[in-house]
Design a protein that fits this description.
Strand order of the largest sheet: 1-2-3-4-5
Structural class: alpha+beta
Order of helices and strands: HEEEEEHH
Helix content: 25-40%
Largest sheet: 5 strands, antiparallel
Number of strands: 5
Distance between the termini: 36 Å
Number of domains: 1
Strand content: 25-35%
Shape: globular
Number of helices: 3
Length: about 100
């Protein structure tokens, strides 16, 4: 099974930013600086610094494929870096709203 590409994961974050897909925080207790979210079956571990989204550490798609920051950076980028400034701000807003 091929690993997830940067673009596939970026598309989920973009769709959440646009309101096409629902972003849901999976837990309130996680490692410092990490947030686990679900975007309609896609499970992402996000690296955050305060209210700022830095990277997507890991992602698993509904079909079981996975991708990780180490493999994405090998090719020069990670999904968060593909977001526009507006999209990034929207995802950060959604994360803040779901903080609980």
């Amino acid at each position: 099974m091929p690993p997830l590409t940067t673009r596939e994961v970026y598309q989920q974050l973009r769709d959440a930013a646009l309101g096409v897909r629902r972003l849901q925080r999976l837990d309130t207790q996680s490692d410092p600086g990490q947030v686990h979210v679900n975007i309609e079956g896609w499970h992402l571990t996000l690296d955050v610094d305060g209210d700022h989204l830095r990277h997507c550490q890991r992602c698993q798609s509904p079909d079981g494929r996975e991708g990780e920051l180490d493999s994405w950076q090998r090719y020069g980028t990670d999904p968060v870096s593909l977001l526009s400034t507006w999209e990034l701000a929207q995802v950060e807003r959604l994360l803040a709203e779901t903080r609980g």
